[in-house]
Design goal:
Length: 311
């Protein structure tokens, strides 16, 4: 059953405001689109809309954190990571302030909004920042677990979400911690490490591969920085072939992070499934995933290629 990222997010933020009396929420003229208007009614004085001025929003959040508040920035991924990147670097990452950024509408799943709104580089830029933790949620249960975990851990963090609906993958007891990942399938032939909405596609691919005699390990690699290094190393040694899958550019995202790590510790073939070196365009999520190679079929082809490259 598909459920809404945005509805779960606002429910979680509302509940968290009860647990953290210093929690404040900031948005850049996106409260209605993100279904945050209920927060203002429930917690007057703790929602701050800065207008279409994302750089000011980051600076405001940094000042709040320095004064002891717990600022949570919520907005479209493109406009809370890439547009105000300089301010994030200088005002949040450099002084290592306790600012949380929750980014919705990440990747091609933005659909008809087109290339200007499709953040295909946000993982790359955010994981390059010292002090930042970078996460991605695969469904609404993980969204709740991720947001709660972010608030518990001190320091800047970035959480990447889809636009709206996601298939249920996890039950209500989902664990989430820095450097964590979930083993969703076990298999000796190839490891498929996916994040975000591509976890669903990875599971579909693994089932299809199994019917053809190929048994894949599937990882929900929700912590992109820090990586689940011990688990990645263990699976590289066992399966000797990797596929990564993400709704993001193949440059600098999860695939880049996994490749960088394994090339230094246990070099194995790594085939990256993601958007090649290009911008997206307008279309439905399904149309764009098909055109840009983000489907279970593409993961299946990548898995077979990775296996054929084993030493």
């Amino acid at each position: 059953m598909k459920k809404s990222f945005r509805s779960t997010l606002i429910d979680t933020v509302m509940k968290s405001a009860e647990d953290y009396d210093n929690l404040v929420v900031l948005n850049a003229d996106s409260a209605r689109a993100l279904k945050l208007t209920g927060f203002t009614k429930a917690w007057p004085g703790r929602m701050f809309g800065v207008g279409i001025s994302e750089a000011d929003m980051i600076g405001t959040a940094a000042g709040m954190a320095a004064a002891g508040l717990l600022p949570v920035i919520v907005g479209f991924s493109m406009f809370v990571s890439e547009k105000p990147f300089e301010q994030i670097r200088q005002a949040v990452a450099y002084p290592n302030l306790n600012v949380k950024i929750i980014a919705t509408h990440s990747g091609l799943c933005v659909g008809q909004d087109g290339a200007t709104h499709q953040a295909l580089e946000d993982i790359a830029v955010m994981r390059a920042l010292p002090n930042f933790k970078v996460y991605a949620a695969a469904d609404v249960t993980e969204t709740k677990a991720a947001a709660e975990a972010m608030l518990k851990h001190e320091g800047p963090a970035y959480l990447r979400l889809g636009r709206d609906l996601a298939e249920d993958i996890f039950d209500e007891n989902k664990s989430f911690f820095p450097g964590g990942a979930d083993v969703l399938r076990e298999g000796p032939d190839v490891t498929i490490a996916a994040c975000g909405l591509m976890v669903e596609q990875a599971l579909i691919a693994a089932s299809a591969l199994r019917s053809g005699g190929i048994h894949a390990t599937v990882l929900n690699t929700y912590s992109i920085k820090p990586l689940p290094e011990d688990l990645l190393l263990d699976r590289a040694r066992k399966t000797k072939a990797f596929v990564t899958a993400e709704d993001h550019s193949v440059t600098g995202g999860l695939g880049g992070a996994v490749s960088e790590y394994l090339s230094q510790t246990c070099p194995v073939p790594v085939i990256r499934v993601g958007v090649e070196d290009c911008f997206g365009e307008s279309g439905t999520q399904d149309e764009l995933y098909q055109k840009y190679g983000l489907t279970a079929d593409h993961i299946i082809d990548a898995a077979r290629r990775a296996i054929s490259m084993k030493a």
